[in-house]
Amino acid sequence: MFLPSLRRCAPGFWSKTSKEFQRATKFALNLEGLHLPVAPYPIFDFADPEAISTLKTMSDRSVGGFSTADLTQKPADPSSDPSSPAHVLFHGNISTKLPTDRPDIVRTGYAAWRNIDRGRTLFGELFWDVDSYMYLALRVKSDGRKYFVNIQTDSIVESDIHQHRLYTKYHKGANGPDDPGQWETVWIKLHEFVRTNHGVVTEPQSEMLRQKVKSFGIGLTDRQAGPFELRVAALWATNLNERGQVDGRTGWEEGDQGSARLHEVTEEKLAQKMEEKRKIPKVKRSFSERVPHFGKVGTNDYSAVR
After folding, report:
1. Is residue 49 a contact partner of residue 70, using CB atoms and an 8 Å limit?
2. Rounded CA gap, 108 and 60, in Å?
3. Coil, strand or helix at 100
4. Is residue 161 a contact partner of residue 150, using CB atoms and an 8 Å limit?
5. Which one of 50, 67, 81, 245 is separated from 28 by 20 to 30 angstroms, measured CA to CA?
6. SS3 label, residue 28
7. Cα three-residue angle 60-64-66, rounded to 5 degrees
């Protein structure tokens, strides 16, 4: 149903006994054998036409507004240049017209989609666990409007949403009015998502609970009247940046995949890479040299949030 099977790092276990705690702490500081997962962690892959059935749309119609939002499955088109992958089309029309019978509604003009609740098992509610990953990646083709990527976690305040602008370089009109736009992959650092509530940045900020993600989705809240369309082929978590390299957190120097791309990362190549590393002479470095990002929590610049 989704992208190729992946190897995930098992979550660590912290014992309450001091002896085991000291052993675990020593291991964490030594950072020996600690690696980030390199295989992608699939969230949505719309090459599977059934994936769209797990999504739902939302708009201001729920409060009497007039905006529309739909999701349509689109098959792959190899005849186009370049070829178009199978994807879902998020489309509709934004209206800022206010309902006449709801004086309490003073703002409309939004549309969005997200996955439906994933359900429960005997062990509890189902979540995505993206704590081992640096980036959220999306394969999209945009019309250039101001979309936001939304993540909801199992937080104390259920209405809290972590948001980040979906910045695109090759959207429709990027290189002139006749530019139809093209497919591109967008990488967003997970630690740069901003906690909001009803579209307003919430203070104080708190780190996103990445171990328990309830939903992923995309919304349009620019309140610009008119049609919109955003095509989405896939969404996944990854530790490979746009250069195909691992960077950022603990183990970053051990995970460098050079110019490897997501689809080129195979078990055989990973084993070959590990064998090459094994033959490299070990050079002892200080903790700060080995983990330059330790203790840093990311940017506090929320100017991109509207």
Report:
1. no
2. 6
3. coil
4. yes
5. 245
6. helix
7. 60
- Give the Cα separation of 113 and 263 in Å (integer): 27
Question: Which residue in the block uniquely carries the two structure tokens 């291991």?
Answer: 27
Q: What is the pLDDT along the chain (306 residues), one digit of tens a residue?
A: 444 333 333 344 333 444 443 444 443 344 334 467 888 999 999 999 999 999 999 999 999 999 999 999 999 999 888 889 999 999 999 999 999 999 999 899 999 999 999 887 777 778 999 999 999 999 999 999 999 999 999 987 888 999 999 999 999 999 999 999 999 999 999 999 999 988 888 888 888 999 999 999 999 989 999 999 999 999 999 998 888 887 654 333 333 333 333 444 556 666 776 777 677 776 666 655 554 544 444 433 433 333
The CB density around residue 32, as the number of other CB atoms within 10 Å, is 8
3-state secondary structure at position 150? strand
Give this prediction's pTM: 0.70
Nearest by Cα to 135 from 229, 246, 237 = 237
Neighbouring C-beta atoms of residue 283, cutoff 10 Å: 6
Task: Classify residue 241 by its DSSP letter.
Answer: -
| Contact assessment for residue 262 and residue 240, using Cβ atoms and an 8 Å cutoff | yes
Token look-up 């739909």 returns 70
Q: Is the preceding peptide bond at 82 cis, omega within 30 degrees of 0? A: yes
Cα–Cα distance for residue pair 182/169, rounded to 1 Å: 9
Backbone phi, psi, residue 264, to 5°: -95, -5
C-alpha dist (Å) from residue 265 to 168, 221, 236, 248: 25, 37, 15, 19
Q: What is the dihedral of CA 241, 299, 181, 40, to 10 degrees?
A: 30
C-alpha–C-alpha distance, residues 111 and 222, integer Å: 10
Please name the helix (run of DSSP H) or strand (run of DSSP E) that holds residue 151, with its range, or none: strand 147-153
- Give ∠ CA 195-199-204 in degrees, rounded to 5: 35
Helix (H, G, I), strand (E, B) or coil at 92: strand
Beta-bridge partners for 71:
90
